[in-house]
């Protein structure tokens, strides 16, 4: 497969993944964006900015280098969140795709400026521990380099908490909303689906049992490692 | 394009926009109404009153002058909320379309008689600040000129708070529900979609963090001006 | 039109109305039932008991006299709630159709044993005042004549509160769920739709404003009489 | 019908029941699993592990003996929860099918580590009393024999509370989620639907009336025995 074919397939996957967001009920209007990276070719493919999902086509997907520079003539403008994706791809070398949504239940926690506690096995199956929430950005960060700083504060959060981005493939940006990622675009979208579901579960769990605590570490381990790592025994591989 | 063609197109847009309301889950039954104004021709096109969405046709849309007088023979009766639309068009000269719904989450805030605080960027992308709630109408206003007074109390709210109707294209009428508007009918409907979504987010944000405060002014500025005004850089234009 | 044709049309309307219940999201499985009365012919048509909505046919609708006695050979067994319908038709002479559902939000209030307060105009457009909740049934009422006693406690509630069944075409049976009715089957189903919607609104209204009170009487009057009675000016008639 | 045909029909029923779970909104992705037992033949048919519902086929269903040993060549790997099903079939001899989901509202109660109180007749129609929640598993149970211990703690819960598995065909596993069962696969899936619905109702019932208590025993009896046992009079049989 030549480079052109590889890029065409990336565009098709990114296009299809973007359409999944409204179909899964994760976004309204043109909110949300999905990108995929090919580290060998040094390119990122991302959704164009503000194009209606009704009229968007595969060829509208935007191709950039790893710094976010446009690589194709007559390219549409990329998602305004591209600089956030660029930073995450740079500092999280294991990830292959990124999804940003404004899914209702995850945003509720982001606006509350709280991490989502690991209250159950649904959470533990995908996220190895609480899903963290970043600190607020400063005025300078917001006014001078907003989207880049958004990526940086995510990286800072993972570094300070010593989190592995693939073990916890999601974050809440304070006052804003969720980013998720994964080894590939399918996983990254699934992680957005799971995140919103566990956010919805956690809210009412607290309402029903205000003193509830997160699940035991050994239950967290059990469920996470049933599905991930060398000794995984979930699925067909 | 002659006037007849212009009016026909307005009817088609207003008809289609009304059908969007149940399709987007914003209303039940025949609740809700959409209108569009053409200030050059001095006409308003609005949904007829109480006609089932299943049988409603383009030709049923009602054409009035800027005072709300019917302009076509054999016209159906216009939405009973027409006088509210007339007042808003008169006092908000920049708006081109109005939408009224009883969408669940916005109504919940209207019934609670509370403005929706700007708790996050989803809100800030569309509404530059809190979405205000009017005062209650007086008995005299309600009994003597209810629909007109509804428009006037909206205008009063925006004047007292020095709000720009296009910077905050939505209001909650106390004990009643939301009105949204926009430069055109597409935007006005989108604003109803966004309003209900941010209302739903805000409720649970408060539940999760009872002491949460609205987002910083500079984050509000950043998100609003990413999408609006001269320096906007969201979308393709 | 002869009696046979009238009954056939009743069966078609009742059949179609029953299918609306799951389509409107008001029920799961085979919960819920709809009936219609023809007082001239002295008959009631009601859904059969426990027949799956996937296989149910028009001819399965059950025809009874005004005491609930089966009138057709090879009739299926009627809804087990038929005796409740019989009592309501007997004591509420103005109603022409009855709907019983287990719609989630109305049931939440019924289980909380609380009337739904008239918190806004969405409520007032259909229900002239709070939607009442019955007292609990006694052990004797439940064990000896449960379904009949359910109808009687509804009638008792309306009599004690001096409510007009057409002005408040809904009730919550304590610990159980809602019944709605109307002049005809279309209205009765619509009233179930509205009831669940206003129940959902009211819950969060209280959450957002714990001290909120019901809307002013003059606003209640205004909205109710916009749509009902001699001076109504909503709709096309 | 020979054994091969019986097994083929079991596979078809189990396949179809698994697809119902996402269609009923009970699960996301590949969460959840359904199995059916034939005690005469000594076999269990269960969903394969982690196969996408989009590509899963009838022939992918996994056949095991009553200890969970694979019986067919080239079998896919069974659901990782198979050992839980094996224990439940062994200790609950009256049940014919089992369903496990991560349905949102039931999980909220499981994560809150609370039984779902019988707050109304919707609950009583299917569950004769509160739906119990197990104790937490110990570290040893989780690390050494997780799925088997999950089955055992369910059995322990029913034994300690002296519950009849067919009178209360559901349980919440603490910190995890619901299992339901029934005489056959249709009933078992329906019980998952009802469980999530009553979980959703119960949460808001408590919010609306924090001091609410479960319904009277005689109302519980009435509704349960309307549908179950010798004197049932709901449905056509």
UniProtKB/TrEMBL annotation, chains A, B, C, D:
<keyword id="KW-0119">Carbohydrate metabolism</keyword>
<dbReference type="GO" id="GO:0019568">
    <property type="term" value="P:arabinose catabolic process"/>
</dbReference>
<dbReference type="GO" id="GO:0046872">
    <property type="term" value="F:metal ion binding"/>
</dbReference>
<keyword id="KW-0054">Arabinose catabolism</keyword>
<dbReference type="Pfam" id="PF00596">
    <property type="entry name" value="Aldolase_II"/>
</dbReference>
<comment type="function">
    <text>Involved in the degradation of L-arabinose. Catalyzes the interconversion of L-ribulose 5-phosphate (LRu5P) and D-xylulose 5-phosphate (D-Xu5P) via a retroaldol/aldol mechanism (carbon-carbon bond cleavage analogous to a class II aldolase reaction).</text>
</comment>
<keyword id="KW-0862">Zinc</keyword>
<keyword id="KW-0413">Isomerase</keyword>
<dbReference type="GO" id="GO:0008742">
    <property type="term" value="F:L-ribulose-phosphate 4-epimerase activity"/>
</dbReference>
<dbReference type="GO" id="GO:0005829">
    <property type="term" value="C:cytosol"/>
</dbReference>
<comment type="pathway">
    <text>Carbohydrate degradation; L-arabinose degradation via L-ribulose; D-xylulose 5-phosphate from L-arabinose (bacterial route): step 3/3.</text>
</comment>
<comment type="similarity">
    <text>Belongs to the aldolase class II family. AraD/FucA subfamily.</text>
</comment>
<dbReference type="InterPro" id="IPR001303">
    <property type="entry name" value="Aldolase_II/adducin_N"/>
</dbReference>
<feature type="domain" description="Class II aldolase/adducin N-terminal">
    <location>
        <begin position="12"/>
        <end position="203"/>
    </location>
</feature>
<dbReference type="InterPro" id="IPR036409">
    <property type="entry name" value="Aldolase_II/adducin_N_sf"/>
</dbReference>
<protein>
    <recommendedName>
        <fullName>L-ribulose-5-phosphate 4-epimerase</fullName>
        <ecNumber>5.1.3.4</ecNumber>
    </recommendedName>
</protein>
<keyword id="KW-0479">Metal-binding</keyword>
<dbReference type="GO" id="GO:0016832">
    <property type="term" value="F:aldehyde-lyase activity"/>
</dbReference>
<dbReference type="InterPro" id="IPR050197">
    <property type="entry name" value="Aldolase_class_II_sugar_metab"/>
</dbReference>
